[in-house]
Amino acid sequence: MRIAEYNRQAAVEYARQWAFRRNPKFYNFDKIGGDCTNFASQCVYAGAGVMNYTPTFGWYYTDINRRSPSWTGVEYFYNFLTGNKNEGPFAEETTLDKLETGDIVQLGNATGDFYHSPVVVAVQGNRIFVAAHTFDAFMRPLLSYNFASARGIHILGVRME
């Protein structure tokens, strides 16, 4: 298996194109729990180019009935990216000051439950700007959100068959 570079610019361009619209290739989860991690997965897929079709623990989307929990679930998405040893993108948890464009921020409450997965679309000095669905945004300052905790997910690369 070879390791390819994650295309951060492609992830950001996808976010720019679809931040205020919905790609008809993917179901819109706004009315059934939120679309943020679905959108984050789409952006990461735009930068990675491959999915991981491992049943249950992979990261893939074929249609609303054939998708992995990690495609749309905040914690499952985190677990896949930070634990993936097979095909697809892989990442590490990091502090917010180490994030780059195309990375993911997950916002959480005071008890440590994470509930939102915005995509980093710009870093200017120590300011992070994100794109997101559910409450649609592009170039929204991360600090404009109200959150008790945050974790960064820095994508290291993509494993290819």
Q: Which features does this protein show?
A:
161 residues, alpha+beta, endopeptidase fold (from Nostoc punctiforme), 5-stranded antiparallel β-sheet, 3-stranded antiparallel β-sheet, 4 helices, 32% strand, globular
Brief rundown of the structure:
This protein has four helices and ten strands; from the N terminus they run E-H-H-E-E-H-H-E-E-E-E-E-E-E.
Tell me what you see in this structure.
The protein has 161 residues and is of the alpha+beta class. The chain has a single domain (2-160), classed as endopeptidase fold (from Nostoc punctiforme) (Alpha-Beta Complex), CATH 3.90.1720. It is built from four helices and ten strands, in the order E-H-H-E-E-H-H-E-E-E-E-E-E-E. The chain has helices at 8-18, 36-48, 69-72, 74-83; strands at residues 2-4, 61-63, 66-67, 88-94, 104-108, 114-116, 119-124, 127-132, 137-141, 149-160. Strands 1, 4, 5, 6 and 10 form a five-stranded antiparallel sheet that branches. Strands 7-8-9 form a three-stranded antiparallel sheet. Helix 1 (8-18) crosses helix 2 (36-48).
